[in-house]
Amino acid sequence: MEVMNHASRFLLPPLPVDGDPSSVPAYALVVLNQRLPRFAPLLWKHARLRLCADGGANRVYDEMPELFPDQEPLEVRHRYKPDVIKGDMDSIRSEVQDFYSNLGTKVVDESHDQDTTDLHKCINFILDCAPDLDKSNLCILVAGALGGRFDHEIGNINVLYRFSETRIILLSDDCLIYLLPKTHHHVIHVESTVEGPHCGLIPAGAPSTCTTTTGLRWDLNGNGMHFGGLLSTSNIVQEGIITVQSDADLLWTISIKKPI
Fold this sequence. Notes:
The protein is α/β, with parallel strands linked by helices.
């Protein structure tokens, strides 16, 4: 079975690219309409394409200056200008839309489409309309994907399954979530300075009859998991490398450390 490697390098400052640039993921950032994580400027710096999903533009406009209290808000807003604003445009404030439009941000109104979420619309844009991104090495970071209304969270998790062949990472101030497809054996490189130790593996799409892990305090050894039965929640990262193999798609979640 083919191995898929995972690492949260986007939570660390970017490193100089030596040699082959394909060794670094082609990050795209989507900002949703929830509180910006404290590390949003770091995600912005990693990303080659930055999108706001509808009211996510309000968050960038209002909250990015709060992360730089010693700087002039207008200068911060100019520095953190999204490339694209896309969605059904029912949440973005008119003055925010006008501000970014005047700076050259592309605004894509898809209010005619009420069958997909704003995140789904943004993922489609990245996959279909961003030719400069290396799709084979693409990783989409979604800020503000967790917290707030539970139905929104479930909608965001559903996007992981609808685009299971694309690396998508849902982020909040407290944790991250991504999908481990059953088609691969997974090797997770834990960035212990910024994430962990709490973690979990959740069979949200379908039950697992056989899941095996290494590197956790409570490893699974061919165990089955399903809602109403065993779930690997409140587990602990024990080693720097975690391996996961399962006969079902699993959600991997790990806590993000707060600065001391």
